[in-house]
Amino acid sequence: MKSAVLTSVKNIELQQIDIPTLKNDEVLIRVKAVGLCGSDVHYYEHGKVGNFIVEKPIILGHEASGDIVKVGKDVTHLKEGQRVSIEPGATCGECVHCKEGRYNLCPSVEFLATPPYDGAFCEYIAMRADLVFPIPDSMSYETAALVEPFSVGVHAIRRGDLQPGETVIIMGMGPIGLVTAAAAKVAGAKMIIGVDLEQNRLDVAKEMGATHTINLREEKLEEKVNEYTNGFGVDLAIETAGNPKAVQGTLSSVRKGGRVAIVGMSPQDEVPMSISSMIDKEVDIKGIFRYHDTYPTAIEMLASGKIDIEKMITNEYPLAETAEAFERAIHDKTNTLKIMIYPS
């Protein structure tokens, strides 16, 4: 099969490799669409993300969908020909985190496109059957691939305990911020404030669920939040930008007794935050790491027709042009949100 292999920093080669050998509890999937994630770009550009370091050639890509073409002999709930979305993290099921139901914290997880595990920028992939979810006939392969980043947004609003009728601010309208806005809309938020430096991203945010926006190049965060909430502040503030100032902005935007959810990974490990504000407001602060138990809900939410998540797709490339897709993501951040790659 054809595969796009990262052989060294900023070097992707199209190679012919063997189709994966199927285990009894797996299904073989012909990959139809894969979203390009920010973590993929970090591996391509820097050779690492945090403590995860690329030490040998690797296939990137973990936001994937496709068709089942073969079923392992122990798999009974799936069949050939089904169109599916793929959850990319195989956890152990035995550690304390898995048994508590928070399998996203499993230390033994084998996550697609996270060294040393290959991802989905290839024609076929073998996946454990419990990580494969059929999608409705009405759902496109593109939307099915975007179930993965959308799951981050679903997990963020769950961890943030967002209730119908509440107000939420989302700092950063990149792909994760956009899907979080979409998830908040479907969950019944009354007011969704999208914050960014780029107007084109704020325009897309309006299409995907944001009711209000703040352009930080032209407007002051606290002034606009006070205007939109009559000086009260938001119930839930979510940071998705991975920016220290955005983290600090969550505290200034949230009301007393409100909640803060941190999704974005800042390039610096330590970010100054006002302890006096945390105490004075008695704010609950929660970290968000990937997701758990989101796929059935996320598929149902996206199938409802309440949001069009494909509005965030700005570019499309065949597998042979995967390297060009990465370069576009690096050098045209202003006009690029989500790039979709088609292995088949």
UniProtKB/TrEMBL annotation:
Pfam families: ADH_N (PF08240), ADH_zinc_N (PF00107). The keyword Signal does not apply. Its cofactor is Zn(2+). Keywords: Metal-binding, NAD, Oxidoreductase, Zinc. The keyword Amino-acid biosynthesis does not apply. Signal peptide: none annotated. Coiled coil: none annotated. InterPro entries: ADH-like_C, ADH-like_N, ADH_Zn_CS, ER, GroES-like_sf, NAD(P)-bd_dom_sf, SDH-like. One of its GO terms (molecular function) is zinc ion binding. SUPFAM superfamilies: GroES-like, NAD(P)-binding Rossmann-fold domains. Residues 7-341 form the Enoyl reductase (ER) domain. Belongs to the zinc-containing alcohol dehydrogenase family. This is Alcohol dehydrogenase.
